């Protein structure tokens, strides 16, 4: 089976070759098996997923500590991405929670594996059909993640580029902003890399008080974006904020307009 090296086109080629059109046609484990990949859930020290490649076959090991099906699917999709895209570059990839979350900090191969997994699990045309014209809410993200059997975080990140309403994702480590990703229409964009997480936010509660809210909370936009040019016109704006912990002291914050 000839598959091009672009992550998105590679994922779509796999769908076409296997006759996959929607979730339920084939499970991700069945797709992996069809590609010559043996999948094992086992105890792994220091990583969430690992792939050992031997020519046109491979063994993927997934930590049996991963209990959420959506998260497991993304880990498996990421490892399949390494098999399809990078088998000529290396024979062993070992991926941690951070590898799968720091989309814009890790190396090119990790970014490509994430992009591949996202498209394999949530093809753009099908994803658009689920979100276009629908107001962003945690309920929408939960519905879409349930349909695709993906994690809430992966589903939200996909929304940034394909959704109809303004949103931003911020990755933080040890109370410091490491990267951000936002839709073109998100009203605030000035948030400096390596700046401190503001205290009066949901993320601030996690880093400074050791508390993590499980549901979206309303926050004042000025807390996150006090120096943004637009804040003088939108000083009374509020945003929804939902946070997800990744790693021991890392957090992803999802913001969207209220």
State the low-pLDDT regions, or none.
none
Fraction of residues in helices?
25-40%
Number of strands: 9
Distance between the termini: 47 Å
Give me the secondary-structure category.
Answer: alpha+beta
- CATH fold name of the largest domain: Arc Repressor Mutant, subunit A
For the residues shown, what is the average pLDDT? 90
Shape: globular
Please, could you describe this protein's structure?
The protein has 9 helices and 9 strands. With 258 residues, it is α+β, with helices and mostly antiparallel strands. The chain folds into 2 domains: 7-124, Arc Repressor Mutant, subunit A, CATH 1.10.10; 166-257. The chain is globular. 40% of the residues are buried. The model has no long low-confidence stretch (mean pLDDT 90).
Layout of secondary structure:
Elements (H helix, E strand, L loop, with lengths): L6 H12 L9 H7 L2 E6 L6 E6 L2 E7 L5 H18 L5 E4 L12 H14 L2 H8 L6 H11 L3 H11 L4 E7 L2 E7 L19 H8 L7 E4 H4 L13 E8 L4 E8 L1
Parallel strand pairs: 1-3
Antiparallel strand pairs: 2-3, 2-4, 5-6, 5-9, 7-8, 8-9
Helix pairs in contact: 1-4, 3-4, 6-7
Give a quick rundown of the structure.
The chain has 258 residues and is of the alpha+beta class. The protein has nine helices and nine strands.
